[in-house]
Amino acid sequence: MKDTGLVTATEFLRHPSMVGSAFPATGRMVRRMLAPVDWSTIEVAVEYGPGSGRFTFAMLERLRPDAKLIAIETGAEFVEKLRAATEDPRLIVVEGSAEDIGRHLVDCDLDHADLILSGLPFSTLVPDDAARIMRATAVALAPSGIFAAYQMRTAIRPLIERHFAALRHGYEWWNVPPCHLYWATTARPDTRVGSAPTRGG
Ligand SMILES: C[S@@+](CC[C@H](N)C(=O)[O-])C[C@H]1O[C@@H](n2cnc3c(N)ncnc32)[C@H](O)[C@@H]1O
């Protein structure tokens, strides 16, 4: 996708708390964020807030030919650009909120995600929305799944720790702004019990 960063900057000016940054992610941060993932095991990947698609296209390069990538984005402008940018049949771009991940998976006839990557600015989201998104994330992930997130600030950390038993942290300076990187696994059992939407249910 041709991305001059203009769409990101414009959308940031229109919705600063939802977009979080006026600049798309750098190639270096994308590579670092995606490096710990074992792509041979990922059948269903989900991306929250793909924005200009920097992570989306890097994920498509790494995903298996039979995998699916569900990209969930609230910004209509981003959705339109992303849909126009590729005909890759593995990519499904959903206009909606990450909060409804369970329903979006069901709509795509999928049970769970093996990987959820978040670009959402958790520190500027309404706290109740952030808490709901994190809970829905832990429910939507397969037991062996991985949740990955990049963030300017550390507000997301207690939310992750509430729902995941294992957490790795890194920091990437080469991005505007520099970001904390998180990789979480092992969703806590109390999060998962009885919460998942089901197909046809
Ligand atoms: C920091 S930007 C992502 C930047 C992107 N990774 C890039 O490099 O271009 C955050 C994105 O999350 C989207 N967003 C905010 N709240 C959302 C929500 N609840 N569900 C889905 N997307 C959301 C925004 O519209 C924005 O595109």
Explain this structure:
With about 200 residues, the protein is an alpha/beta fold. The chain has a single domain, classed as 3-Layer(aba) Sandwich (Rossmann fold), CATH 3.40.50. The chain contains 9 helices and 7 strands, in the order αααβαβαβαβαβαββα. The protein has helices at about 5-15, 15-20, 25-35, 55-60, 75-85, 100-105, 125-140, 155-165, 190, and strands at about 45-50, 70-75, 90-95, 115-120, 140-150, 165-170, 180-185. Strand 4 (about 115-120), helix 7 (about 125-140) and strand 5 form a beta-alpha-beta unit. The longest helix has 14 residues, at about 125-140. The mean pLDDT is about 90. It binds S-adenosylmethionine (SAM). S-adenosylmethionine binds near residues 20, 48 and 55.
Describe this structure in a few short sentences.
The protein is an alpha/beta fold and 201 residues long. Helix content is 36%, strand content 25%. α3 (27-34) crosses α4 and α7 (127-140) packs parallel to α8.
H/I helix tally: 9
Strand content range? 25-35%
Main pleated sheet: 7 strands, mixed
Strand order of the largest sheet: 3-2-1-4-5-7-6
Shape: globular
CATH fold assignment: Rossmann fold
Q: Quote the average pLDDT.
A: 90
Question: What class would the helix/strand composition place it in?
Answer: alpha/beta
List the helices and strands and how they pair.
Layout: H1 6-14, H2 16-19, H3 27-34, E1 44-48, H4 54-62, E2 68-73, H5 76-85, E3 91-95, H6 101-107, E4 113-118, H7 127-140, E5 141-151, H8 156-163, E6 164-172, E7 179-187, H9 189-192
Parallel strand pairs: 1-2, 1-4, 2-3, 4-5
Antiparallel strand pairs: 5-7, 6-7
Bound molecules: S-adenosylmethionine.
